[in-house]
Amino acid sequence: xxxxxxxxxxxxxxxxxxxxxxxxxxxxxxxxxxxxxxxxxxxxxxxxxxxxxxxxxxxxxxxxxxxxxxxxxxxxxxxxxxxxxxxxxxxxxxxxxxxxxxxxxxxxxxxxxxxxxxxxxxxxxxxxxxxxxxxxxxxxxxxxxxxxxxxxxxxxxxxxxxxx
Length: 164
What we know:
- This protein has one domain (30-163).
- The chain starts with a helix and ends with a helix.
- Helix 1 (2-46) crosses helix 2, helix 2 packs across helix 3 and helix 3 (63-86) packs across helix 4.
- It is mainly α.
- The protein has helices spanning 2-46, 48-57, 63-86, 90-113, 124-127, 133-163.
C-alpha cells in the first residue's frame, strides 16, 4: 500500500507542477498582451489625429469607417488591457485580443504586400515602426500566442469535463 500512496502523491505533484507551469504561462501572456494593448491605446488616446492619419494611410477604409475605427479602437484596446491586467472577464479579453492581433497582422500584411511605405501606427508617432518584416513578425507572434492560448484553454476545459 505504501507504494500506491507514493505513486498517487507523485502523480498529484506532477499535476500540480503542470498546473503551476500553466498558471505562470497564462499570467505571463495576460501581462504581455495587457501591456501591449495599453501601450497601443494610450498614444492613440493622446493623439487621436495621428492615429486617424495612420488608419487612413492603410487605404482600406472610407473616411466614415476610418473615424469610427480611430474613435473606438483605442477604447477597445484600453478595456481589453484593463481586463487582462486585472483578470476580469479573461476569456472574453483573450478572444478580443486574438481578433485584434489577427486584424492588425492581416492589415499590415495587406499594406506590406501592396507596397505601402507607411508607419504601422501601433504605438503612436514616437514609437511606431515602418511596416515590414519586423512589425509583421511582432504582431504575428502575438497573434499566434493568442490563438494557442485559446486553443489550449479549450483543450484544458474539455479534458477537465471528461475527468468529472
